[in-house]
Design brief:
This protein has 418 residues and is α/β, with parallel strands linked by helices. It is 49% helix and 8% strand. It has 4 domains: 159 residues, Rossmann fold (3-Layer(aba) Sandwich), CATH 3.40.50.300; 67 residues, Helicase, Ruva Protein, domain 3, CATH 1.10.8.60; 90 residues, Zinc Finger, Delta Prime, domain 3; 64 residues, no CATH class. It has a 6-stranded mixed beta sheet, sandwiched between helices. A two-stranded parallel sheet has the order 7-8. Helix 9 packs across helix 10, helix 11 packs across helix 12 and helix 15 runs antiparallel to helix 16. The radius of gyration is 30 Å and the shape is elongated.
């Protein structure tokens, strides 16, 4: 898709969405991104000087990535070519580059969702970027360090955009009404607050909700705003960074024994359409990693909830997930098992896997002292490899008091038996 400046021509009968009509055309019109576009900042200085450079714009939906790319092109007098990596392939990229070769003015190539390109597709852009044939502006909601090839990253600047604040969103809503974009309508401050709070920092969501709410009459009140927002209360990308951010929040809240926060983040994932099997898997991992032997029943319950997810499915399986989240939150916590294994693995990485004593191997089992023939079933034999007789990996914490007592008794008995 090629154009020199601004938006493409539209059919006169086509109704342009409010979000498109409100798109900023200059840096001064941009709302938010105060740090990124502060006076004297590198990006602002480059744009104002008309010297664009290739970049990756990384940020959540509706934070202004496309708008910023268009302003870069218009300020520098460059042709603007736009494609989405979801629909474009190497052929489309080659066509953009070929057109750029025959232009006197520069070309800004905006590639939305650049993380959708595989590595060979991304690498196809390298020479054009190096030669300056195009100024590549890639946009992504994913962390570019994970999704963009290192070869391409080394040739561009990466800029992180923040979600718009509630104050930013309110400013946009008030600007739309003040400019008369929706006709003669009045926006209730409480309705503006509701839209700003529930739009998740996404300007498109906020402006679309405002436009829909305005169709109910000249007064946009709280009920009208709530109705307009009803289909998009939760912004959650189950395939992107938010997928990891919210499960991370759930893990940390549950680890911190905050049952209400645990339930809140569980609800966020479920309302956002997260796969319940993913949640159940994380619960099983949590039960071993963060609770362990402080409460072995936690793993049993987590496994049972995963079984319910598989056998029952949505929506009824959510009760089992809620039950597990509550139990895991309130259970005593211990990471002693994982820490013990980490210490044992570190020993092996440092010294290699030492051979066990011969009487523990299949060839030398005749010399093995059978613990069940001993009082208390404690073996007097040395069971560690030679050289590791004094190694201690497991250190029970205060949540594993019973295991700590048992360990002390066993170590004492083994010492006496020798």
């Amino acid at each position: 898709m090629e154009r020199l400046f601004g938006d493409p021509p539209r059919d006169p009968g086509e109704k342009v969405p409010l979000a498109a009509r409100m798109r900023p055309r200059t840096l001064e019109e941009i709302v938010g991104q105060h740090a990124l576009l502060a006076p004297g900042s590198p990006l602002r200085a480059a744009i104002e000087a008309g010297r664009p450079h290739s970049m990756i714009l990384y940020g959540p939906p509706g934070s202004g990535k496309t708008t910023l790319a268009r302003i870069v092109a218009s300020t520098s007098g460059s042709a603007f070519e736009e494609h989405s990596a979801v629909e474009a392939g190497r052929a489309e990229v080659k066509a953009v580059i070929e057109r750029a070769r025959h232009r006197a003015e520069g070309t800004v190539f905006f590639l939305d969702e650049i993380h959708r390109f595989n590595r060979p597709q991304q690498d196809a852009l390298l020479r054009a970027v190096e030669e300056g044939l195009v100024v590549l502006i890639g946009a992504t909601t994913e962390n570019p360090r994970h999704e963009v090839s290192s070869a391409l990253l080394s040739r561009v600047h990466t800029y992180a955009l923040e979600p718009l604040t509630e104050a930013d969103i309110r400013e946009l809503l008030e600007r739309a009404c003040t400019r008369g974009e929706l006709g003669d309508v009045a926006l209730d401050p409480a309705a503006a607050e509701l839209i700003a709070r529930r739009s998740g920092g996404d300007a498109r969501v906020a402006l679309s909700a405002l436009e829909l709410a305005s169709r109910g009459g000249p007064q946009i009140d709280v009920p009208a705003a709530a109705a307009a927002l009803a289909s998009g209360l939760v912004r959650y990308d189950a395939a992107g960074d938010q997928h990891y951010d919210v499960i991370s929040a759930w893990i940390k809240a549950t680890r911190g024994s905050d049952v209400d926060a645990s339930l809140y983040y569980l609800a966020t994932m479920l309302e956002g359409g997260e796969d319940p099997r993913f949640i159940a898997r994380r619960m099983m991992i949590f039960a071993s990693e963060d609770i362990g032997n402080a409460d072995p029943a936690a793993l049993t319950l987590a496994v049972a909830s995963a079984e319910v997810v598989e056998r029952v499915g949505l929506p009824e399986c959510t009760f089992a997930l809620a039950q597990a989240a509550i139990y895991l939150s309130l259970a005593p916590k211990s990471n002693a098992a994982g820490a013990a294994l980490s210490r044992a693995r570190a020993e092996i990485r440092e010294r290699g896997a030492l051979r066990p004593p011969s009487y523990l191997t299949s060839e030398g089992s005749d010399g093995y002292d059978y613990p069940h023939s001993r009082p208390g079933h404690v073996s007097p034999q040395e069971l560690m490899p030679p050289g590791l007789e004094d190694a201690r990996f497991y250190a029970p914490d205060e949540a594993e008091a019973k295991l700590a007592a048992a360990l002390a008794d066993i170590r004492a008995a083994r010492g006496k038996a020798r």
